[in-house]
Amino acid sequence: MANTIGRSMRAAGIHQGLAPVLDVARDYRWGRTEETISEDPYLVSTIGTAYVQGLEGAGIISTLKHFAGYSASRAGRNLAPVSMGPREFSDVLLPRSRPPSGWAEPGRSCIPTPRLTGCPLPPIKPC
């Protein structure tokens, strides 16, 4: 599917796609859950990888949206701080950002400005 989309984009003269959206759905109050693939990090990684491979295979630069943590904002508010510990963050939100070695490598990544337990992202550093 993504390869077909990518070929259509190339035919229209487009060189960069703002996709795939790799947010892991966490709080259904968040106003952008309809943009997410799933609430399962492995499924998000798998589908996201195939999407990147399809776009890049058609010569389109893919852009991962959004950096880990964006969809887990406090009270479901857009760009609010993320209230979760490093273990949950690593287990749930990072797998889709770090697929296993040998999977797709995107051309770009869209990075919003949430905070994780008071620390800005990225990079995540102890406070």
Description of the structure:
This protein is α/β, with parallel strands linked by helices. It has one domain (2-116). 28% of the residues lie in helices and 11% in strands. It has three helices and five strands; from the N terminus they run αβαβαβββ. The strands form two sheets. The chain has a three-stranded parallel β-sheet with strand order 1-2-3, with helices on one face. A two-stranded antiparallel ribbon has the order 4-5. β4 and β5 (119-120) form a beta hairpin. α1 (2-11) runs parallel beside α2. The longest helix is centred in the middle third of the chain and has 17 residues, at 41-57.
Terminal residue distance? 43 Å
Taken in chain order, the helices and strands follow as: HEHEHEEE
Overall structural class, as computed from helix and strand content, comes to: alpha/beta
Tally the structural domains.
1
* Low-confidence residue ranges: 123-127
Strand order of the largest sheet: 1-2-3
The total of helices stands at 3
Radius of gyration: 15 Å
* Largest beta-sheet details: 3 strands, parallel
* Shape verdict: elongated
Residue share in helix: 25-40%
Task: Summarize model confidence as the mean pLDDT.
Answer: 79
DSSP strand (E) fraction?
Answer: 5-15%
Number of strands: 5
Key features of this structure:
single chain; 127 residues; alpha/beta; 5 strands; 11% strand
Which SSEs are present, and which pair or pack?
Blueprint: H1 2-11, E1 16-17, H2 41-57, E2 61-65, H3 86-93, E3 108-110, E4 115-116, E5 119-120
Parallel strand pairs: 1-2, 2-3
Antiparallel strand pairs: 4-5
Helix pairs in contact: 1-2
